[in-house]
Design a protein that fits this description.
Elements lengths: L7 E7 L2 E6 L3 E6 L5 E4 L8 H8 L4 E4 L17 E4 L21 H11 L22 E3 L4 E3 L4 E6 L8 E5 L4 E5 L8 E2 L7 H16 L5 E4 L5 E2 L5 H13 L6 E5 L2 E8 L2 E5 L2
Parallel strand pairs: 4-5, 5-6, 6-7, 11-13, 12-17
Antiparallel strand pairs: 1-2, 2-3, 3-4, 8-9, 9-10, 10-11, 13-14, 15-16, 16-17
Helix pairs in contact: 3-4
């Protein structure tokens, strides 16, 4: 298996938009433009992401990171132009696993252990002993009110905190697409139990998303770990907004469960699981 087209799964979501999947469910998106292209997130760093992207577009590529968690910054150091919310940088101003919470330091090794135990293949030129997520020393800080020009369309950054302090989304008004990162996590759930998670900020984020959806600003929500949410599927925003409000009000039942990040409260709303601090 090579580290480019055989390791990554690439799907054209729409004209000029690609979903790139690494491993079981680590998703990225490439918005290809006539003047510049924007890659949203950088996966887990096992494959050669830059070579893949450069084979898909013939314009310069800027990397936009939705947040700093390990499975979004894996190959960020491969790119020359990296941008992230100012709150997602380490105290030294880097994008890195070290110098922040210790929650994610062991995640790359944990992924490898599980992947290999399941008998899954890795790229032929991948050296597990050297696997590390390299830091980005001087990423451009964002605030969540920027506009990015692709030539034939634009992206707008939106500050969508809750999962992390500086979680960003990127809005393509022309296409009616919102790239949401982990605003909804794996299996349509919410992870609010990690450092920087904030229930009240998350509720405000969902109120904002619902208002944008209801105004017809976007019709498709693309997240990192789920298939696209389109049309009636966007009702999930209402369900999760209501769930967050109920948690804050102290209403719903929960159970305390063990996760990879320690104990957490587990709530369930219509099939979506929400994890919060115990």
């Amino acid at each position: 298996m090579n580290s480019i087209d055989e390791w990554y799964d690439v799907e054209a979501v729409s004209d000029g938009t690609y979903r790139i999947l690494e491993g079981p469910y680590y998703g990225m998106y490439l918005a290809a433009g006539t003047e510049r292209s924007y890659l949203i997130d950088a996966g887990i760093g096992v494959g050669d992401l830059r070579a893949l992207v450069e084979g898909l577009v013939d314009t310069p590529v800027t990397l936009l990171l939705t947040h700093w968690h390990w499975d979004h910054i894996g190959n960020a150091a491969q790119f020359d132009d990296v941008r992230i919310h100012e709150r997602e940088r380490s105290p030294a101003g880097r994008v890195a696993l070290d110098g922040r919470s210790e929650e994610f330091l062991g995640r790359p090794a944990n992924f490898l252990e599980r992947w290999q135990a399941a008998g899954e293949a890795l790229p032929d030129d991948f050296d597990a002993d050297d696997y590390a997520i390299e830091p980005v020393e001087n990423p451009t800080p964002l605030s969540g009110d920027e506009t990015f020009d692709l030539g034939d369309r634009t992206l707008e950054s939106l500050h969508l905190p809750g999962h992390s302090q500086g979680q960003l989304g990127f809005l393509d008004r022309q296409s009616g697409v919102l790239y949401g990162g982990d605003v909804i996590h794996v299996d349509e759930g919410l992870y609010v139990h990690l450092e920087g998670g904030d229930l009240r900020a998350y509720l405000e984020t969902f109120e904002r998303l619902r208002e944008l959806r209801d105004a017809g600003v976007f019709e498709t929500l693309l997240t990192s770990h789920n298939p696209p949410f389109v049309g009636e599927e966007l009702a999930i925003l209402d369900r999760l907004e209501d769930g967050l409000r109920r948690i804050i009000d102290g209403d719903p039942d929960y159970e305390v469960v063990e996760t990879d990040w320690g104990d957490a409260r587990r709530y369930e709303f219509g099939g979506s699981v929400v994890f919060t601090e115990p």
